Amino acid sequence: MTYKMPTIPPAPQTTPKTVYLVASGDLRLSANQVCWAAQAEMEAKLEVVLKGLGWTIHRAHGFDPLEQHGFISSQRMGMNVFSSIPKDAPLIVAEAVWQYSHHVLAGLRDHRGAILTIANWSGQHPGLVGMLNLGGGLTKMNVAYSSLWSEDFNDDFFLTGLEQWLETGKILHNTTHVRDLELNALPASERELGAALALELKHQKAILGVFDEGCMGMYNAIIDDEILNPTGIYKERLSQSALVAEMNATPESEARAAYNWLLEQGMNFVLGVNETTELTENQVLEQLKMYIAALRIADDFGCNAVGIQYQQGLKDMTPASDLAEGLLNNALRPPVFSRDGKRELFANQPLPHFNEVDEGSAVDAVVTQRVCNAMSLDPSSTLHDLRWGREYAGQYVWVFLISGAAPPNHFINGYKGTSSERQPPMYFRLGGGTVKGISKPGEIVWSRVFIMDNALHADLGRATVVELPLEETQERWALSTPQWPIMHAVLHGVTRDQMMARHKANHIQVVYAPSSAEADNLLAAKAAMFAAMGIQVHLCGVE
Question: Pairing state of beta strands 206-211 and 178-180?
C-alpha cells in the first residue's frame, strides 16, 4: 500500500558569529502597539553592543506593518517563527515589555543552543517582570537558560555577562545568598508549630478555587495536581462564566451596602462620568458584585483561597477584578452574608486571592494565613510584581507593585490611605478601579513557591518596607503604573543582581509582622511548615 508521507523541510543551518533574536509580546494588540517603541529602542542598543563584539543579530521575525509591532503575539506564531531558527544557534529572548511566555515556550523547549533572556532595567512596561516570568517557565520545564539585565547595555556587569555567554553558552551569577534550609537550626517552637500546621493541613486538606488556569500565558503559575496534592492542597476548577452568572444574580443593594461600608471607612474613589476613560460608580458596583460573588462561590465549594483570571478571561465581560481582589486579601473588609442572609462568610478573615491565578502564590497564601493565625498576627497578605528599583539615600529600594490587589491593611492609614483609580484603558477596556496605597513602613517576610526539578521549592527572605518622601514615591509611580499600590522594599542580605539571578517568578509574596523579631519567627514557622509539606526550602539572605 502507498501512503502519502509528510514532507518535513530541512533544518536551518547555523551561521558563525550569529545570534538569533526573538521578542515575545502580549496577546492584546493595543499593548503590543503601545509598547513597541520601547522594545525597538532596546533591540537597537543590543545590536550595537553585539556588533562591537564581532557578532551579528538575526531577528527571527519582522515588524508587522498591519499590526504595527514586531512581537510574537500568539503561540501558533511562536511555533512558526521557531521552525525557521537553527536549533543549535545561540538565541536571545529580548524583553522590554510584559510578555506571554506560552508564545515561545514550545520553541524554547525544543531548542538545543544556548538561550539568553535579556530585559531592560525599567519599570515602564515592564520587561523585567516579563523576563522573570519566562525564567520561571523555563525552570519549570527544566530548560537551561541564562539571564541578563541592564539600564543602558553598556555597563561592566552586562558586558562581562554577555561575553561570558557568547564564549561558553552560560552565565555564572553570584547566588551565594541562597542556602538550603537546615530544619534543626530553626527555633524549636516555630519548628514544632510549622510541623503541626502541615500535619493539620494534610489531614483537613485545603481547596484552591481556580477560576480558569493559565492567566496571561503564565505557565510557571500552574502547579500540576500530582505535585500539588501531596502537600494537602487540591483544586476546585471553576468557570469564570459561573462568576459572571453569580454577579448578575447579586442584588445591587448588596453591592451598594459594601460601597457605603468602604466610604465610611474612609476609602476614596476617584470617580468620573466617562465610562471609556474614567472610573464610574457603576463600574465600582460591578466590582463589588464580583467581590460578593467570589465569596459565595468559595463558600459553596469550601474553598480556602480563590484566583480570578481577569486577563484574558473577563476583560471583555466585566470591569477589573482588582477591587474585589484587594478586599478579599484583607482581614477587615465589607461583610458578606450567605444568600439567605443567615451567615457571614469568612468573618474577620481574608479569603486569600491569588492574583492572576498564580498557584505558587496560592500555596504561599494558604500557608501564610494558617501560620499568622496561629501566631496571632494579621493574616492579610498579597503578591506583588518584582517590578523594578533604584537606589535612594544609599540603599537599594525595590518597587514592588501589583495591579491593585493589595490589602488596605498593608497601607499607611489603612482604608483612609486607600484610593481606587481607573485601570489604564490599554489593558482594561471596561474600566474598574484599583486598591491603591503606599505600603506602611515595617518588617515583612517575602517568599516564592515555584517548580524546579519537577518538585515544589520555596525561597524565603526578609525585608524592611521603608517610607520614602512623597516626591520620590510619585516619581516611582510615574515610572511604572501610577494607579497601582506600591511597596518600597529593602531586601535583607540580597543585592539587586542576586535577586534577579535567583528569583523564579514575576511575583513575590509578602506579609507583615509587628517587629523584626516577630518577622524572624514568622519566617521560621513558614519555613518549617513548607518543609513538613514536602516542599524544598531555601533561605535567601537569612543567616
Answer: unpaired
Residues of the chain with CATH 3.40.50.10940: 18-168
- Residue 543 banded pLDDT, cuts 50, 70, 90: confident
Nearest-angstrom CA–CA distance, 73 and 378: 42
Q: Tell me the residue length of the chain.
A: 543
CA distances from 119 to 49, 151, 158, 414 (A): 14, 9, 11, 35
Q: Do the Cβ atoms of 524 and 187 come closer than 8 Å?
A: yes
- Give the confidence band of 1 by pLDDT, cuts at 50, 70, 90: confident
Residue ranges of the chain assigned to CATH 3.40.275.10: 183-540
CATH class of 18-168: alpha beta
DSSP string, 472-497: HHHHHHHTS-TTS-EEEEEESS--HH
Q: Verify cis geometry, omega within 30 degrees of 0, for the bond prior to 287.
A: no
Q: What is the pLDDT of residue 449?
A: 98
Taking alpha carbons only, the member of 19, 60, 46 closest to residue 167 is 19
Cell of 31: 499593548
List the one residue out of 467, 481, 480 whose CA is nearest residue 395: 467
379-409 b/e with 16+ CB inside 10 Å = b? bbbbbbbbbbbbeeeeebbbbbbbbbbbbbb
d(CA 308, CA 215) in angstroms, rounded, equals 9
Work out the mean pLDDT of the chain and round it to a whole number: 97
* CA distances, 249 to each of 301, 437, 513 (Å): 18, 31, 39
Check residue 341 and give left, alpha or beta (phi > 0: left; psi -120 to 50: alpha).
Answer: left
Residue with cell string 510574537: 72
pLDDT at residue 385 is higher than 90 = yes
Output the pLDDT for position 339: 96
For 254, the enclosing helix (H) or strand (E) is: helix 252-265
Q: Model pTM?
A: 0.96
Contact 496, 415 (CB under 8 A): no
**Does the pLDDT value for residue 186 go beyond 90?**
yes
From residue 165, how far is each of 151, 291, 376, 441, 469 by CA, in Å?
19, 48, 49, 40, 40
Cβ neighbours for 51, distance < 8 A, ≥ 6 positions apart: none
Domain 183-540 CATH class label: alpha beta
Placement of cell 529602542 in the chain: 41
Helix (H) / strand (E) element for 80: namely: helix 75-82
